[in-house]
Specification:
Strand content: under 5%
Shape: globular
Number of domains: 1
Structural class: mainly alpha
Order of helices and strands: HHHHHEEH
Number of helices: 6
Largest sheet: 2 strands, antiparallel
Helix content: 40-55%
Radius of gyration: 15 Å
Number of strands: 2
Strand order of the largest sheet: 1-2
Distance between the termini: 21 Å
Length: about 150
């Protein structure tokens, strides 16, 4: 199934609108994360783009497993499964400031949309190697949509 293009303003604005429906009291429909940890978890994907030194790149042999087994699921057209395994750097164990994490995420989404798909077409991903603009859009949109659905947004 084709996913909406996260680089289009109306798509990113719709995601931001959904983020703005969340509250610190929002409850998950599945999984283990609290809403503040989910927001911090979603921020990690953008940290790997805009703060690449914050998280180490996967090393051999994990990098091969990620590129050949995980990448097709993450950047492809199939929807993610509920309660899918999470990479270690994406696991948030401590409580986070809800407003701070939501604000950071919105800023990352806006920055990505403003840079546009041309900036991302052929850009190297932290874990998956070079991706085209559709793969970037799928990955970013699917991840956000999955977790917003997790919290009923």
């Amino acid at each position: 199934m084709p996913y909406p293009n996260i680089f289009q303003r109306e798509v990113s604005d719709a995601i931001i609108g959904r983020l703005n429906t969340l509250t610190p009291e929002s409850q998950r429909l599945w999984g283990k994360m609290t809403v503040d940890r989910m927001l911090a978890h979603c921020n990690v994907a953008y940290e790997t783009i805009y703060e690449p030194d914050k998280h180490p790149k996967p090393k051999f042999p994990m990098n091969l497993i990620i590129r050949y087994l995980v990448k097709p699921v993450v950047v492809g057209d199939k929807p993610p499964r509920k309660s899918s395994p999470t990479a270690p750097q994406f696991i948030i164990v401590d409580e986070r400031d809800f407003e701070r994490e939501r604000t950071r995420l919105i800023e990352y989404i806006r920055r990505t949309q403003e840079l546009g798909e041309a900036e991302f077409d052929g850009k190297e991903s932290h874990s998956f190697g070079v991706l085209n603009k559709t793969q970037w859009s799928n990955m970013l949109y699917k991840h956000l949509d999955h977790h917003l659905q997790q919290f009923g947004a």
